[in-house]
Amino acid sequence: MTLPQRDKRLAAHLTWQEFDQRVKDNYIFILTVGAIEQHGLHLPIGFDYLMGHEVALELANRYPVVVMPPLQYGYRSQATVGGGDQFPGTTCVGAQALIATVRDILEELLRHGVRRIVVNNSHLENHNFLVEGIELARRNVNLEKHGCKILLTGWGNFVQDATLDALFDGKFPGWDPEHAAVIETSAMLAIHPEYVDMSRLPDESCPRYPKYSIFPTPPDVVTKNGALAPAKGTSLEKGKRILQDVFNGYAEAFKTEFGL
Ligand code: MN
Fold first, then answer.
1. How many alpha carbons lie under 13 Å from residue 70 in its C-beta half-sphere?
2. 19 C-alpha vs ligand 1 centroid, how far in Å?
C-alpha cells in the first residue's frame, strides 16, 4: 500500500520541527471556520468549510502560508441565511463551544510564537463568535508586545460590488438569500468542481424573505430544496470572476497588513 504523500501546506502534515521553522520564518497561519449545513441538493453539507479550506489551500500555493486544520463545525444555521436546523445533516455548535474553541486554538498558536494569523470565516453566522474568540485570546496575550496581528475575514468579504452588479445585472439580492445559490455554486465550480452537481441546480425562490427571525422556522421562508435563491445562472465564468476578486482581496490584505 502506498501512503498518501504529505501535503506540506497543511499543518497536520508537518513535523513539529517543520511547524516551528515556519513559525520562525513568520508564515501566515490560516484557521478556516466553516459549518456543517445543508446547501441544497447540488452541494454537500460541508460546503462552508470546504469552500474556505479550498481558498486557504490556494493561498498556500501563492504565499508563505500554513493551513491549520479547519474547524468544520460552525454556529447554528439561521433560516434566512443558511436554511436553519430543520434539514437532515445540518449539525451546528453553540456560541460557547465556538468561542472557546477559537480562543484556545489562537492562544496555542500565539504560545508557539506565531505572529501572523488569519481567521478565515466561511459561514456568516460565525462572525461575532469569532470576534469574541479573538478578543478573549487577546486578553491573555498582548498582541502589540509580541508583534502579532490577527485578521478576521472570509472569501465573501472580498467580492466587489462591481462584480455583484455585473453578475446580477444590478439586481444583487444581498448575501443572505444567496445561500447555495449563484455565487456559492459558481465559486465552488471554479475552485473544486467535483463538489458541484450541475444536474441538480435549484431554481426556486423563497416565498418570502422576512426582515426578522421566526422561531420555530415556518415552511415558507426556506425553499424545499434548501437553497434560498435559484442557482440556475451558475457558470464557471462567474466563478472565475468571483475568485479573482477573492484572491485580489487577500493579496491586498496580505500586502497592507503583513507587508507581503
Ligand atoms: Mn453557511
1. 25
2. 30
How many Å lie between the centroid of ligand 1 and the Cα of residue 1? 38
Q: Verify whether residue 203 is a known catalytic residue.
A: no
Q: 178 catalytic, yes or no?
A: no
Whole-angstrom distance, CA of residue 73 vs CA of residue 11: 19
What pLDDT, in 10s, does the model give residues 63-98?
A: 999 999 999 999 999 999 999 999 999 999 999 999
Q: Residues 58, 125, 178, 245: which is the catalytic one?
A: 125
Domain assignment of residue 5, yes or no: no
Torsion 86-157-249-198 (CA) sign: positive
| Host domain of residue 211 | 11-255
Domain CATH code at residue 52 = 3.40.50.10310
Cβ-contact 31, 153 below 8 angstroms: no
**Domain total for the chain?**
1
For the entire predicted model, the pTM comes to 0.96
